[in-house]
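Friendly challenge for the regulars: who can give me the structure tokens for this chain first? No prize, just bragging rights.
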Amino acid sequence: MLAKRTAFTLVELLVVITIIGILIALLLPAVQAAREAARRMQCSNNLKQIALALANYECSFKVFPPGRLGCDGSTLCPLAPERVGTSGLVMILPYIEQQALYDRFDFKDGPWTYNSTWIDTNDMAIAQRVEAFVCPSDTSKEYAETAEIGGAYSTGGKPVAVGNYALVSGSIGPSTGISTAAKYDNNGVFYYRKAHRVADISDGLSTTMFVGEVIETHTSDSSNIWSRAVRFMDCHRSTDNPLNTPPGDPLAVTAYGFSVNAAFASRHPGGAMFAFGDAHVSFLSENIDLATYRKLSTRNGGLPVSAF
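First reply, four minutes later:
Bragging rights claimed.
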């Protein structure tokens, strides 16, 4: 007598495959949400590390670093050595365990000169990607795409690393056009040349944003090269435009051949994270009231501590 054979019928197999597919479809969003939560936590840790480094810098020098060392081609800086353009993030490298990278920078003329002359000793430094300056949720490339663009803000065809965090210059932005106010007389803490003290921040450290997120940092319209600061671009952003405004839109100005809007933005759903002067990190909704958002970016905008 033949033994009875047991097996799945084709219909039963299709049912099992369908059930497995449904389970995967149900679980996938939860897995993706868990991964994003982990990435967001790492991003928050990065921002906190930067804010603590700024606080440690202030403890050492009694001022916060300027958003940009030196100025540019204005009459305020008639000599080329004063036009170095180095960002404030370079100044805090020793406080995030990057002393060796900091030592690679030549501050006699800086890595960024207004006439696009390059200092070879800085090539390795500006090409270095600093993980503490990179949000794991972002999709930007590692290096700037502006390398082949000519003019004063060219990268000279050499690799230059970008990052996802920019210092908050204040609320003065593209709506003022190409004016010097955004560079030399902004109402935040970090902009050209000026080094502020804690006493200058009358709104209080806990309600004053220091560092925020930026997306598409390798592109011309949203360039965020971490080692330099340029008005409305690299490490020099404002709250003139609403949070999560796409690069180049809607209120943007043509500067240096690019359409820049100075906006903060992130790949986290619904908003972006900011580090404040007291080193706490908060996630701000992209629907935040624009007036409140702007006041949070100023050092003396009159925002009471209880308002946030």
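Residues 10-61 form the longest helix (52 residues). The radius of gyration is 23 Å. Your move, everyone else.
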